[in-house]
Every structure is written in C-alpha cells, then in structure tokens.
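Run: sequence + 2'-deoxycytidine-5'-monophosphate -> complex structure.
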Amino acid sequence: MQHYNIAIDGPSGAGKSTLARRLAKRLGCMYIDTGALYRTIALSMLRQNAQTDAEITQALSGLTVNMEHIGGEQHVFANGEDVTALIRTSEVSMAASRVSAVPAVRAFLLDLQRSLAQTHSVVMDGRDIGTVVLPQADVKIYLTASAEKRAYRRFLELEEKNPGAQTLESVLADVIRRDEQDMNREIAPLRQADDAVPVDTSDADLDESEQMLLRVCEEKLGL
Ligand code: DC
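>> structure
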C-alpha cells in the first residue's frame, strides 16, 4: 500500500480535527490530533503548577506522553494515565496555547510526531505540521474560517458539554487571543506553508468541507 502523509494546519475552530478524522477514515490512514499532545502536556503542567518556561522545561523531564488508538479513537496518556477525557476544557485550551510556545515542549513532541508519520500513513493536524514537523508531506492543507464562524462552532461544542458555562462573546475573545498567541510566538508559529493549499470553510458545512479536502488529496496523491 502507498505510504503518504497529509498535513492539515490552521487556527482553532476551523474544523481541523473533525475533518482530518473523516479524511483519515476515507483514505484508510491514521488520524493524529497533535493538539491533544500539547493539551496533555498542558494538563500535566496545570496539575504541577509549572508556569514559567524554566518550570515547564524542568517538569518535562518527569513526563512521558503517549498516544494510542482505542476503538478507532485517539487516546492520550500522561505517565500512563489516560487523560483523553480531561483535556477539552477552556482552561486546558489556554494552557496548551501557552505551553506550546515553550521551545522544549515543541522539541519534546517532534520525534513522537515524526516517528508516527514514518511508520504509518497519516492525516496529522496541528499548527506547524506542514511547516516544521512534516515539511515533506505529500499533501499540505491550510484550513481556515473567519474568527466569528470559528467561535460560533466552538461555542456550540462547549454548550453541548456544559450549557450556560460560556457566552459567544467570551468564546470569540478566547479564539482571538489564542490566534494571536499561536500566530505570533517565536517558535513554529502558525502560518500557511508556501506549498499548502488554502481551504476556507467559513461558508461550507462539514460535508462540503470534507469534499473540498478530498478533492485536494485526490489531486495531489493521484488517487
Ligand atoms: O488544536 P488544539 O486546539 O487542540 O491545540 C491546542 C493548542 O496547542 C493550540 O493553542 C496550539 C497548540 N498546538 C501547536 O502549537 N502545535 C500543534 N501542532 C498543535 C497544537
């Protein structure tokens, strides 16, 4: 079977994880949500109250992060504990954005991400997959949508889990703050790779977006 890697980058709430998961299923390859790896580190740092770059770097030496697919879903582990259900809170989102700017954290996850892509055909989503982690990826997609649309989608997702715990305004403010942090950090900032195909999902539903991504992949991979 042909081995290939598909990199999907973009800001939070553009639909990366849902679409990357669907695409992986369609193409029969492994979906890797790299944000979940940063979130796993963030949770661990919150628990230890590691805040400065030095404290975070130091705490990494006592941490092991793994991922495994169980029943078709990606699970993430911090020192052997399955933390998958604990990493989707707003608090962990903000902390993930923060820890992901620490150079030692990025270096810590680089080998894991690359070795997964070497041993499997993957659809990997994140912020720097096409630019840093897999610069040789066969397909690179930069998935985006307006901040308002992304905030609205995130709001609906959060409301489903925790009704009334947030307002659309607070979610939009978080989205803008996270974009700002992710795009302006010094190391591996979120940006479109020169050879990435931009896909804007502002006015497309999930099925339409999936079709757009599928077309890009089919064309690039000659399927
Ligand atoms: O995709 P997400 O919202 O689960 O990502 C959480 C945070 O992790 C996000 O603010 C940026 C960071 N991240 C990153 O810096 N690089 C990646 N490859 C994936 C995520």
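>> summary
The domain at 5-213 is CATH 3.40.50.300 (Rossmann fold). The beta strands are 5-9, 30-33, 65-70, 73-78, 81-82, 122-126, 139-144, 197-200.
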